[in-house]
Design a protein that fits this description.
The structure holds 2 protein chains of 2 kinds. Chain A is α+β, with helices and mostly antiparallel strands. Helices cover 43% and strands 22% of the residues of chain A. In chain A, strands 3-2-1-6-5-4 form a 6-stranded antiparallel beta sheet, sandwiched between helices. By secondary structure, chain B is an alpha/beta fold. In chain B, strands 2-1-3-6-7 form a 5-stranded parallel beta sheet, with helices on both faces. In chain B, α1 links the parallel β1 and β2. Chain B starts with a strand and ends in a 6-residue tail after the last helix. The chains are: A alpha+beta, B alpha/beta. Chains A and B meet through α16 and α20 of A and α1 of B.
Chain lengths: 740, 121
């Protein structure tokens, strides 16, 4: 907090030996200068489908590693390899580190798990291993079938794909962490790369701590006190990581990290600053050991941060101020005055830099006396700054995912023509009501969304309200409910049917905390269903009635007695006549039938057409379906008879069909149809019997149509008169209403 | 069915006529048959009526009014119809019903049951 760019530059040069350059090294991934350009296929990852970032898995792994760091720090790298294989992320995983040997540099597998674990401790010449490429390029590497490029390296079991990231120490790449797949089915994606990069930073930082510990142990001069402090520090770190693994609240996490930084640097005060939203300043996120409202907190909460920001951005390196009073650039400033008043005599400041090189904050601790930090303190600080960065990154990614999902939800709600709603399960207060409400309920959304949860009830039919409310109980009990109710739309006073499809929404403990639902206007749907029901019922009725008629006609045809061929021919003829009229009825849009067409169709069916012997004459007249059906059958009987025995069977005989439309005595319209045969001398034998045709004309037409009929056989042939009531002209009902 | 007075309401001539013949053969006295609602309603008042056979749909007019009057008079009836139960109003869904096309023996058996006095249970 206490410097300008100049001061920062000065401090950098002053503590050169202590600067931890590796904080910036994560950005150095993009300098490939390996000759074989086709070796590294890392850019393919962009085109592969990637799983979403799995922070939960990452936290779990970090938790395990933190345990290992505390219990068996020397085993940390092996544990990391093991866990990658255990979790099915890799078939083989390991870490190789560069070593110098008499035969030149080698890469040694210091940790290995999975298929290649038998090679642990082994080595490959530096120039003959992917690890060497990673170290040289200081960049991640994805290789397909590495055996093609590195013939001297191991190849059993065969590796189909291997992903490596640089393992750094003090900013310098010293090895590689890698995951390999022995099966072609496993292909790495961007999430694998992200996870590997995160884990390697933890591993590298941890290793620096443990190496420092090892050095201290090996140093004969190291006091028992220093050793104890190192061990205590490791325990403190372990405690922190165990807590962070399950912590979801960002503020709490940053507070914990700051507290740990204060303790591990052996002081009592510290501050974690974050870059402000506009990127201009560094603001306090956490301060530890300072009271609220002191001159210090007021002065530095927002102030002077611009210079710090620039310094931090420019250098992105740790800045150590061993003595504030003697620090160039601070001397004579208000900052120094306030710092000294607060008894700040030394500071440690570590930038928090993301993997992409963005500065997001600074972790500081302050000392009451001039202080030259121990190597251990600097390493702890570096690790904690990295930890804070990681937590913030994960948190903001999760935050962004949540915001994204909320945006999507709102877009969905806005686009839906159905009403989507969410209520609090306890109070039933509306938490969300989609814009479609206005159109569906015909009422303004706002009043119903914000006021009394039962306000919506006033729109619902009184008789349906109890059912509507009862469903909330079922939802609270965890049931899914679908129910329908009626509303009166205030906008137009119309009654509408609403179908609610409701579901309970539970928290992670399974308790119902919210009720959700989708309300749909099903008025049209219900009306259509009802119409369809009527149509289907009507169709059934007609089909079954027709079958009953056919059966009856069949029975009567058989009763007539005679050769089976004749019976069959008669029956077929009648069935065809029925079918013909049905066809004409259903083909005309109104269901009404033109009489002349009906007659001509019938004659055509027995191959009789216009000629001198045939006269068909009458005004245009259309018959309702029922009338057409019966008249059609009657015409068929007359025609068949005429073809067999009458006017159509005898050369020189004549058939005269004519009709008129008249008013009867009661004023109703009637069709008077006359069928007159002439020149037939012989009265056919068949016609003397009580046949089907006679029954149809003399009994069925009067019964069914209220017709008056007369059928007689004179010397010249058959004469038939049919007088049938007609609906008033222009009162022809359309087909649908005539049948329904 | 001998001597029983059976009302037949059916607008389709052939079906009505078949039924009439079958009932006569059983010795029943057929009232009707009629094919119009008004005629049917008028015949419900027939003093000797024992049972009725009702088509549901008479060219668009439905015979429920006849059924209601029969019920008032405690005269049993059976619907002979092309409709399934679901297409009937709630009140008549459980009424005796024979689907069209009704096999005559089955229909006669139902009518027989209607006119057979049931023991009090």
């Amino acid at each position: 907090v206490l410097w300008t760019p100049e001061i920062a530059a000065a401090s950098v040069s002053r503590v050169k030996g202590l600067i931890l350059e590796n904080l910036a090294a994560g950005r150095a991934d993009t300098h490939p200068h390996y000759a074989a350009a086709d070796l590294n296929i890392l850019d393919q990852l962009e085109r592969r489908t990637s799983r979403p970032a799995d922070f939960e898995a990452e936290n779990a792994i970090l938790g395990v590693l933190a345990d290992e760091l505390a219990e068996r720090p020397a085993n940390l790298l092996q544990r990391l390899s093991d866990i990658l294989v255990e979790r099915g992320l890799a078939d083989t995983a390991g870490i190789s580190l560069r070593e110098s040997s008499d035969n030149g540099d080698v890469c040694r597998w210091v940790a290995l798990a999975g298929g290649w674990s038998y090679l642990k401790g082994g080595e490959t010449p530096f120039d003959a291993s992917p690890c060497g490429v990673v170290i040289r390029d200081n960049a991640a590497l994805l290789v397909e079938r590495p055996d093609r490029y590195f013939p001297r390296a191991a190849n059993v079991p065969l590796i189909h794909e291997v992903l490596l990231v640089p393992f750094q120490s003090g900013g310098v790449p010293v090895g590689a962490l890698f995951m390999a797949a022995h099966s072609p089915a496993r292909r790495f994606d961007e999430e694998d790369l992200r996870l590997l990069r995160s884990l390697v930073r933890f591993a590298a930082a941890s290793r620096q701590v443990t190496e420092a510990l090892k050095d201290a142990r090996g140093d004969e001069q190291a006091s028992q006190a220093a050793l104890a402090a190192d061990l205590a520090g490791l325990n403190r770190l372990h405690e922190l990581y165990a807590k962070l693994a399950v912590e979801t609240d960002l503020d709490t996490a940053l507070r914990d990290i700051t507290a740990a930084a204060v303790e591990l640097t052996g002081t009592d005060r510290g501050v974690l600053q974050r870059v402000s939203e506009d990127g201009e300043r560094l603001e306090f996120a956490v301060h530890h050991g300072y009271g609220e409202g002191t001159r210090f907190t007021e002065h530095f909460r927002y102030q002077g941060a611009k210079a710090v920001c620039e310094a931090a951005r420019e250098h992105q390196q740790a800045i150590v101020v061993e003595d504030t009073a003697a620090f160039p650039g601070l001397v004579g400033t208000v900052d120094l005055e306030i710092a000294l008043a607060e008894e700040i005599r030394a500071t440690l400041s570590f930038p928090m830099v993301t993997r992409t090189g963005e500065l997001i904050g600074v972790l500081n601790t302050q000392f009451r006396k001039p202080h030259r930090p121990l190597d251990r303190e600097l390493r702890f600080m570096e690790m904690l700054a990295w930890t804070a960065t990681g937590f913030i990154e994960r948190h903001s990614a999760a935050d962004a995912a949540l915001r994204d999902s909320e945006t999507r939800f709102r877009e969905l709600g806005a686009a839906s023509s159905d009403v989507i709603w969410i209520r609090d399960a306890g109070t039933l207060a509306l938490e969300y009501l989609s814009p479609a409400f206005d159109a569906v309920y015909g009422a303004r959304r706002q009043p119903y969304a914000e006021t009394d949860p039962s306000a919506i009830l006033s729109l619902i039919y009184p008789g349906d309200r109890a059912g509507y409310l009862a469903n909330f109980e079922r939802l609270r009990a965890g049931e899914r409910v679908r129910h329908e109710f009626r509303i009166t739309r205030p906008s137009d006073g119309e009654t509408r049917w609403i179908r609610n499809t409701d579901f309970p929404m539970v928290d992670d403990k399974g308790r119902v905390t919210r009720l959700g639902g989708i309300a749909q206007d099903v008025t049209e749907e219900k009306a259509n269903a009802a119409r369809l029901g009527v149509l289907v019922a009507e169709l059934q009725h007609r089909v079954r009635n027709m079958l009953a008629v056919v059966r009856s006609v069949f029975a009567r045809t058989v009763e007539a007695n005679g050769p089976i061929e004749e019976i069959a021919a008669h029956f077929t003829g009648r069935l065809d006549a029925l079918a013909r009229t049905q066809m004409i009825v259903t083909q005309s849009s109104s269901g009404h039938v033109d009489l002349q067409n009906l007659i001509r169709d019938e004659l055509l069916s027995v191959a009789v057409s216009d000629g001198p012997a045939l006269a068909i004459e009458g005004p245009d007249v259309t018959l309702p379906p029922k009338t057409a059906e019966s008249i059609g059958l009657a015409l068929h009987e007359l025609t068949t008879n005429a073809v067999k025995y009458g006017a159509l069977s005898i050369p020189g005989a004549k058939l005269d069909i004519r009709w008129t439309v008249n008013r009867s005595d009661d004023g109703g319209r009637r069709l008077d149809l006359r069928w007159t045969e002439q020149g037939v001398s012989m009265v056919p034998l068949r016609q003397t019997r009580e046949g089907f045709g006679r029954e149809l004309i003399e009994d069925a037409l009067p019964y069914r149509l209220g017709a008056k009929t007369r059928l007689e056989f004179t010397g010249g042939g058959v004469r038939c008169a049919i007088s049938v009531p007609l609906p008033e002209d222009g009162a022809l009902a359309p087909f649908a209403s005539a049948t329904l | 069915l001998a001597g029983k007075h059976i009302l037949v309401v059916e607008d389709e001539y052939f079906i009505a006529s078949d039924l009439q013949r079958a009932l006569k053969k059983e010795g029943a006295v057929v009232i009707g048959p009629v094919g119009h609602l008004e005629e049917g309603l008028a015949l419900v008042a027939h003093p000797a009526l024992d049972a009725a056979v009702l088509d549901v749909n008479l060219e668009g007019a439905q015979t429920f009014a006849i059924a209601a009057r029969l019920k008032l008079r405690s005269i049993p009836y059976v619907f002979v119809t092309g409709y399934d139960a679901w297409a009937l109003p709630d009140a008549y869904r459980d009424a005796p019903r024979v689907g069209k096309p009704a096999p005559m023996p089955a229909l006669l058996a139902v009518i027989e049951q209607l006119v057979t006095p049931r023991p009090l249970s």
